[in-house]
Each structure stands twice: as C-alpha cells, then as structure tokens.
C-alpha cells in the first residue's frame, strides 16, 4: 500500500501527525479505494487546539462544532465534538464500519474487517446516533456500489422512519 498522504494544509497535517487530531470517515475509505475523497473530515481531540486552528482559515460554519475550509479542494471539515476526544471515540461514533477508519499519529486505525469490507463493497451498520445523517450516508454509499444485509437496511429504515415521524 502507498504511504498515507492527504492533501491538507501543513498546520493541520502537524496536528494529525502528532496525534492531536485525526482524519476520519470517507477520506480513509477513499484512500483504501484509491479514489479522490469527496471531503476530508478532521476531528480534533481538544477544544482549545480546534478553536485556535479554525481562526487560521477562511471557514463557514456547517453545524455546531463543524467548520468547512471553503477554499480547499476537496473541502476540509474541522470538527470538535465533546464525545469524540480519542481515536476510539471517533471509531465508536461511526454509523457504518466503512466510515470508522481513522488516520492519526502516523498510522491507520481500522475496525476489524475494514479492508475486506472496502474490497467487497459490503458495509455493516454499527451505530445510529444521528438517524437522518445515517440514512443519507446509507443512500450515498449505495450509489457508490456498497451493499449491506437486509437486517441492517430494515434497522436503518425503522430508525429513520421513527425519527422523521417525530419531526412532523
């Protein structure tokens, strides 16, 4: 496998390479697929560093705790969540196994069976914290050619349906 290189500004690369932040999710999946990522998500493990770094770039607030660097291709999301202050936390927050890969401190941290799941284009539901986002990611991954078990599809649809019914 080729060495890990991600097209990110040096100051962000330093935070990732020293273990103070991690590249997570789709950028890792894209790395293993040898494709260009749609975006790069960088989770920061401490609020102070995160708040300092978001002032170094031209950003747009995407959501609470998420800022997007607007003048970078692919876009970079800078993220801080109280529940995600370590690699393990980031992996546990992922909704699908293929979204749980992380890169930090010079190495990849992947869930069991990750490379096989990517190669076979078979994803497994892990966790549903944000039902709408999980459903949207499920639909996007289906467009990328990924499949999952009928049981996982049923769970996703039940949770999404319950969530959308509450919102009405």
Task: Describe the protein.
The chain has 168 residues and is of the alpha+beta class. The chain has a domain at 10-122: Beta Polymerase, domain 2, CATH 3.30.460. The protein is 41% helix and 17% strand. It is built from seven helices and seven strands, in the order αβαβαβββαββααα. The chain has helices at 10-17, 26-33, 47-54, 87-93, 114-120, 131-143, 150-167; strands at residues 21-24, 40-44, 59-63, 66-69, 76-79, 102-104, 107-109. It has a seven-stranded mixed beta sheet with strand order 3-4-5-2-1-6-7, sandwiched between helices. A hairpin with a 2-residue loop joins strand 6 (102-104) and strand 7.
Strand arrangement in the largest pleated sheet = 3-4-5-2-1-6-7
What is the overall shape?
globular
- CATH topology name of the domain at 10-122: Beta Polymerase, domain 2
Q: Which class best fits the helix and strand makeup?
A: alpha+beta
Largest sheet geometry:
7 strands, mixed
Mean pLDDT: 91
Beta-strand percentage?
A: 15-25%
Low-confidence stretches: none
Give helix and strand order, one letter per element, not per position.
HEHEHEEEHEEHHH
CATH top level of the domain at 10-122? Alpha Beta
In DSSP terms, counting alpha (H) and pi (I) runs of 4 or more, how many helices? Answer: 7
- The CATH homologous superfamily of the domain at 10-122 is termed Beta Polymerase, domain 2
**CA(first)-CA(last) distance:** 48 Å
Secondary-structure arrangement, i.e. CATH architecture of the domain at 10-122: 2-Layer Sandwich
Kindly state the number of beta strands: 7
What is the share of helical residues?
40-55%
Radius of gyration: 16 Å
């Amino acid at each position: 496998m080729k060495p890990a290189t991600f097209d990110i500004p040096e100051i962000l690369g330093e935070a990732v390479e020293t273990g103070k932040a991690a590249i997570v999710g789709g950028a890792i999946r894209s790395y293993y697929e040898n494709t260009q990522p749609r975006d790069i998500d960088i989770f920061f493990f401490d609020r102070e560093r995160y708040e300092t770094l978001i002032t170094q770039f031209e950003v747009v607030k995407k959501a609470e705790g998420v800022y997007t660097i607007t003048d970078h291709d692919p876009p970079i999301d800078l993220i801080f969540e109280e529940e995600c202050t370590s690699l393990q936390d980031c992996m546990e927050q992922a909704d699908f196994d293929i979204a749980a890969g992380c890169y930090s401190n010079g190495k990849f941290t992947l869930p069991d069976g990750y490379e096989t799941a990517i190669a076979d284009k078979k994803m497994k539901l892990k966790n549903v914290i944000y039902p709408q986002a999980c459903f949207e990611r499920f639909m996007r991954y289906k467009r990328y050619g990924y499949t999952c078990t009928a049981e996982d599809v049923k769970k996703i649809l039940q949770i999404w349906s319950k969530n959308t019914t509450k919102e009405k």
